[in-house]
């Protein structure tokens, strides 16, 4: 108990920074999910576009453009999944040469001295974040694969299917596509927050500032961006 209290007294800045980071990471995740249900944002507006896309897809017998667009989305996700594996390999390599990295960062202005064990904890946080991102990317990739299967099984124009059933089918495909896009978004968001963790290697207060800045950037892009305005206007026309 005394050792824990001593650690908290000597590393209280890092503890505060880590707690603030987790609040930003999970807090923004919960906030964005709840706001998407009642407020226009990139995810909610793009879901409407996906539903319109799938409804249009059902009116075409030749669906080459649809399968090509879906394949492009899969390739984008596969790129991030493979990149994440390379990053994880790099982080494991860095953990094997921590002393050299500590000496290099020690020359950075405002850098706070940290022991090898502290550095390893910070590196483990990065490893955990990129593992989380990898699982999100690979699950998104599988979900886009499910979309491809559903698209292949979509009823053709001459199929004996009612308009109501076609509408329901389009909604289901769009929902699966939105789930895939959401997991891709969570993986990309983790990349953003991983940049904030880099500040922790220099100074805990920089870590706090970067975590707050990442939340601001994500909020502006998802809820207040010019791209969102154009998407809303185009959807309303």
Automatic annotation (TrEMBL):
Keywords: Membrane, Transmembrane, Transmembrane helix. It comes from the Bacteria. The chain crosses the membrane at residues 12-31, 77-98, 119-135, 191-219. This is DUF599 domain-containing protein. It comes from Sedimenticola selenatireducens.
């Amino acid at each position: 108990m005394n050792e824990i209290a001593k650690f908290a007294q000597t590393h209280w800045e890092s503890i505060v920074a880590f707690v603030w980071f987790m609040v930003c990471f999970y807090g923004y995740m919960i906030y964005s999910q709840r706001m998407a249900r009642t407020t226009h944002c990139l995810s909610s507006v793009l879901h409407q576009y996906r539903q319109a896309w799938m409804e249009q897809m059902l009116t075409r017998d030749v669906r080459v453009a649809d399968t090509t667009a879906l394949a492009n989305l899969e390739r984008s996700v596969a790129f991030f999944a493979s990149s994440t594996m390379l990053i994880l390999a790099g982080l494991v390599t860095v953990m094997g040469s921590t002393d050299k990295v500590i000496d290099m960062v020690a020359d950075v202005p405002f850098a706070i001295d940290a022991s090898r064990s502290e550095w390893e904890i910070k590196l483990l946080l990065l490893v955990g974040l990129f593992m989380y991102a990898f699982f999100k990317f690979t699950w998104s990739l599988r979900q886009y694969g499910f979309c491809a299967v559903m698209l292949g099984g979509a009823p053709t124009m001459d199929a004996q299917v009612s308009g109501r059933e076609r509408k329901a089918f389009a909604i289901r495909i769009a929902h699966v596509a939105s789930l895939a896009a959401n997991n891709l978004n969570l993986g990309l968001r983790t990349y953003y927050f991983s940049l904030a963790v880099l500040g922790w290697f220099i100074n805990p207060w920089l870590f706090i500032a970067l975590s707050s800045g990442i939340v601001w950037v994500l909020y502006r892009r998802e809820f207040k961006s010019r791209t969102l305005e154009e998407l809303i206007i185009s959807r309303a026309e």
